[in-house]
């Protein structure tokens, strides 16, 4: 059944006027005097008290839609058709002063990076108070009182102390709460959230989402949420719209869209993420072939035809109709009944073997930073080993010591006396400057942000040949040939070799970074959040590539990530860090089958579930303690939901073997960890 209404969401409207109504919105950027289409007839409504999610790859128009909703457009942005209504007001017809008044009183936006949203040289109290001063009719004293109340409202402990701090003195989660407090100063009717939890720990992410959910219910605001993380959308939103190349291709409730996708693109996105405990030994992840069209590309029929696995001649000649799939569910596709033909990734028949021989060892390593205000023990007696071809996942909140451990292994930080880092049983120099060529070659790193890790002025060929020469000693034609071979293994073409990083997509740049790390055939590659900033389809391609390289050349990985699902997919074993200590070390299966350390239990409960499976989240009260002043006894006891007074706060537990090499640093026994019911909140 086709729907002819140009605004298909009108079917699901109630008698309540939408807080936001986007109606057939077309928007272009003017580039060298020519309009380049970005949005192509976008339509959707968000009602008061409703959370609406927008998903899709980078460049599909999600953020442009959000910025258009509040008329936050760059100088070369032009709305060429359509209307934006907010509470019945037409924003497209408003002048500058009317827009400023509307934004001050009726709508607010929370950005992806809270650091960029605040002034680094002004104290928190002044910045929050200014939000109330801009609303008028309050004295300076009253504005500061309201600022303190606003921080209490977003569940910030000791608000007076926080008001007297500068932004750099707050954690990422705390700073995001401050930004949300500022956004809610006017009790807005519309709250736009653009990737508000990207880069946050799973526990902090869950707390921020709980906060937004609670405040939405409290003030009845409409929420427009943009996120790469489909689990966040599933847990937070009532309805979701799927965007591709500036056009809405599917919309419905989160249950309808995620459980019964009716567009090939939607199914491709869902197949790209590791769901239901999927691991690398089960099957590869699906990566949507090709890339999204560039802005301004003429797309006269279906926008997805170049990447669609069920495309026919009809798709090339006719505009796809809007097809009803349920009461509130619709898709823009010629063949929604053929979605089952979209191929699922095949099960892998490759056996992944880990050789027990230890290639890199971290034995009793501690790292203390000497500072004027006192010593800060960032790592405390770390013992880890890497088997040949093994992936060790490393998880924990920011500040737990993950990156410090990685940099200590690489020789960037020199460990304290008494610990050792070994290569095949032989000690390596503790600093990179003192290591021989074999030691340097043996451990390489892939960073989170390839833009910061690659020389933008060099071609890919020069980046790789230099790495080959530095790590292997070969040069000239031989180095060039090896660089070409490495690039081919990373699925980079010779055309890519003669391009510069700025000319590549995020996924291609990360492939170059991985190629550089593998230039010297390393024994261990440290991967520090290598996929956190990537779309799920590109992330799938990178994870598949890492798994394939590991099978072929038996490289070991230290894989650091906030995304527990990604860690579960790629890792053979997982280590959990807290305040510079390993509190749990287990195989991936052991970690997810239990029992687990109370901190691990809280981490796992905070993971947003894209499959909609009900779960109770275990809240962690308070912030992670400072390594400079750790609590007595067990360092986790101040936040632990299984705290035993007189035991946990008196003596520090040993890291004990709970069977099969499953190590847990806890006073409680396995039976107690399984039986005690912790306090929970609804996920």
Please provide a written account of the structure.
The protein is α/β, with parallel strands linked by helices. The chain is built from 23 helices and 27 strands. α3 (124-135) crosses α4 (140-153), α3 (124-135) runs parallel beside α6 and α15 (460-472) crosses α16. It is globular and about 70 Å long. Residues 1-13 have low confidence and may be disordered.
Output the CATH homologous superfamily of the largest domain: P-loop containing nucleotide triphosphate hydrolases
How far apart are the first and last residues' alpha carbons, in Å? 36 Å
Low-pLDDT runs of 5+ residues are: 1-13
Fraction in beta strands: 15-25%
What is the β-strand count? 27
- SS field, number of helical segments: 23
Give the overall form. globular
Radius of gyration: 26 Å
Helices and strands: which structural class? alpha/beta
**Overall mean pLDDT:** 89
Helix content: 25-40%
Quick recap:
The chain has 683 residues and is of the alpha/beta class. β17 (420-423) and β18 form a beta hairpin.
Can you tag this structure with a few keywords?
disordered N terminus; 23% strand; Rossmann fold; alpha/beta; 683 residues; eight-stranded mixed sheet; nine-stranded mixed sheet; 23 helices
Question: Could you give the topology of this structure?
Answer:
Elements: E1 2-3, E2 20-31, E3 34-46, E4 51-55, H1 62-69, E5 77-86, E6 89-90, H2 96-105, E7 107-110, H3 124-135, H4 140-153, H5 159-163, H6 172-183, E8 190-194, H7 202-219, E9 222-226, H8 230-236, E10 239-244, E11 247-253, H9 254-259, H10 264-271, H11 313-317, E12 322-324, E13 330-332, E14 355-371, E15 374-388, E16 391-395, H12 402-410, E17 420-423, E18 426-427, H13 437-442, E19 443-446, H14 450-453, H15 460-472, H16 476-489, H17 494-497, H18 506-517, E20 524-528, H19 536-553, E21 556-560, H20 564-570, E22 573-578, E23 581-587, H21 588-593, H22 598-605, E24 616-617, E25 655-657, E26 663-665, H23 670-675, E27 681-682
Parallel strand pairs: 4-9, 4-10, 7-8, 8-9, 16-21, 16-22, 19-20, 20-21
Antiparallel strand pairs: 1-12, 2-3, 2-5, 5-6, 10-11, 11-13, 12-13, 14-15, 14-17, 17-18, 22-23, 23-26, 24-27, 25-26
Helix pairs in contact: 3-4, 3-6, 4-6, 6-7, 15-16, 15-18, 16-18, 18-19
